[in-house]
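Sorry, any thoughts here?
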Amino acid sequence: MNQQPVHPAPAAPVAAPGMPLRVFILDDHEVVRRGVRDLLEAEEDIEVVGEAGDARQALARVPAIRPQVAVLDVRLGGTDGPDGDHEGIEVCRELRARVPDLACLMLTSFDDDEALFDAIMAGAAGYVLKQIDGTALVHAIRTVAAGQSMLDPRTATRVMERLRDPGRAQATEAETSELGRLSPREREVLDLIGEGLTNRQIADRLFLSEKTVKNRVSAILSKLGVGRRVQAAMVVERLKGPRA
């Protein structure tokens, strides 16, 4: 999107106990923005702190407002068809570079594998369809705000199947090189991340403290050059190769 490089903004703050969860909405349809805003503002613990109808507005406002969650439409600019642009994913990528602790939840009308994978690799914490009901959307926002990953149940199975496809299963030379930088213990932790275990479950499995696991996970993400656990899990799946 030819945006000028900027220095990252301060990390998005974590909501203090008793303080509302701060959410920003990006969608090029005013009716959708209004509907999501009304839904969220009905929740006592959520505050909509801003909204935008295009990428330029979002990139200007989010670093200044510093929400904890940004709900981003995948397709912007009035391109409504299933083959439309994925500009919202580029917004996610740019916002994550500027505000690393921001949790981005992608919202889309179309069940699109390519957009799903692109969103995950751009650092999105979640990806849900607009057909989702209100209660589930609120739950998804709270989930990503808590630092967890959120995929629409209808897409999660296909994600794993796509990763196991022989055409994508072979590890790239870059991934192999990056994995070579991990210690044996970090490889163990990475394998358990690939199994979907939480930090607490990994700590129990390896007889480590939860703080130690958290530090190792951070080191793993840094060495692999990814920002989310789900991205690390994708690396694990590709390295496993095709299934029998």
About this structure: The CA atoms of residues 9 and 59 lie 11 Å apart. The chain has a mean pLDDT of 78.
